[in-house]
Structure formats: structure tokens, C-alpha cells
Amino acid sequence: MKIQSIKAFSDNYIWLVSTNEGNLVIDPGDSQPVIDFLSQKNITLTDILLTHHHYDHVGGVTGLKKNMLGYVYGPNNPQIEGVNNHLVEGNIFKSCGLNFEVIEIPGHTLDHIAYFINDSKQPVLFCGDTLFSGGCGRVFEGTYDQMYESLMKLRQLPENTLVYCGHEYTLNNLKFAEVVEPNNQAIHSYIAACEEKLKNLQTTLPSNIQLELQINPFMRCDNMDLRQEIAKKLDDHENITDAQIFEYLRVWKDSF
């Protein structure tokens, strides 16, 4: 399996997954960058996988479907044009010789799903706009509780799971994380590493679950050091729940 990024718009990543049995793309918000990349590499598209209905993740489906060999897989949302197979929690399907497990992760949108390759040697997660490196998506359609529970689902995956998300937001997320936890040395180190990658025109992705548990405040709402930092900002903090910590952080990040 080979995973490559195709850039779209200002900061979107369309992921191209290639195996000996075919090629699939995940969240093609724009068809032209994919068409150009496939043509340049002389690659034929087999399938398309979608995580949620936002246009910057599905806008290229119609243009790509004309010349692809297989099917479009997506959330159980009839509003998304071109989906052949609507998926729900626990569905397992095969594409290009890979087994994908569907995880429902509402919050950013109500229809949001993730795709998990449960490989014992190297598990892989494609999580759209729910979990970002160092951050998480905005809560547009769901509730803060839903979004928090979705992140907790992803947190239970093996720590070596590679995390491929939909945008290059890492450095911006880490700048916020640094304010939330000013004494977290893992965040400081990761900022330096990401700055170097971006300077060299490289993507900061993939991340992994183990790293996110060290540097992502939205995955650390039960961490004592983080909670002590938040307590400084709240009058009534003794009985605050992890989910309420998450909501506080997400609202704060919205205006950061």
C-alpha cells in the first residue's frame, strides 16, 4: 500500500491510496488536481471514499466518476450526489484489496464517518475533518458532546495508527495547543518539526494516535496538567467533566 497526498484549494488534502489491485482517492473536493495527478502518473482510478458532505470533500466526485472503474463509498446521506454505497457504523468493505472498517464520528457534521484499516502491523485511519493533528474540526451540525465522543472513539484505536486528515491545519492547531499547555514540551518539539517540514514544502501528515495523545488538547481533556491549566481560567472548575473541558477548548479555539 502506498499513500500519497494531492493538494486541493488552499489547504485540503485528497489522499490517493494505491495497491497492486487498484487506486482509490479519499475526499476529492476538486476533480482537476486528481485528474492531473493520475494522468501524470499514468494511474487509473478505481474507487472513491467520502467522509462527509462538505463541498470541499465531495465536489470532485461527478467529474471523477466519468472515468473510474469502481464505486463511490460514502456516509448514509442521500444528499451526497454520486454515492453508490452508503455506509454506517461497523460496515466492513473491500476496496483495492484493502479492508476498510467504518466508524461513525458525528460532530463536525452529522453524517461524518472515518475509514479504518485494521492492519496488525500498520493500522491506518482516514478521518476527514474530525481529528486533525494537534486539533479537531469545528462543531457545525452536531453537539459538543457528540464531537467529544467521536474523538474518544478514535482515541481507542491502536497508538501506532497513522492518522490522515483532510487539511493542513497542523501548525495553526499547535499554536493554540501551546497556549493551552505552555509547559508541554512535546508540543514545543512538534512545532519545530512541523515548521521544518513546511519550510521544505512537505506535509505534516500523517500523524499517529500516540503523538496526538501527547500534543492534542482535544484528545487530552482528562489529562491532569491540561485540566490544571484550564482551572486557572474557570471560577467553578472542581466538578467539570472531560466533555465540558472539551467544549470550553473548542469554543476558545473558534475565536483563537
Present the secondary structure layout.
Elements: E1 2-8, E2 12-19, E3 22-26, H1 31-41, E4 47-49, H2 55-58, H3 61-65, E5 72-75, E6 85-87, E7 92-95, E8 98-104, E9 113-117, E10 124-128, E11 131-132, E12 135-136, H4 144-155, E13 162-165, H5 170-180, H6 185-199, E14 207-208, H7 209-215, H8 224-231, H9 242-254
Parallel strand pairs: 3-4, 4-5, 5-6, 10-13
Antiparallel strand pairs: 1-2, 2-3, 7-8, 8-9, 9-10, 11-12, 13-14
Structure description:
The protein has 256 residues and is α/β, with parallel strands linked by helices. 34% of the residues lie in helices and 24% in strands. It has nine helices and 14 strands. Strands 1-2-3-4-5-6 form a six-stranded mixed sheet, with helices on one face. A six-stranded mixed sheet has the order 7-8-9-10-13-14. It has a two-stranded antiparallel sheet with strand order 11-12.
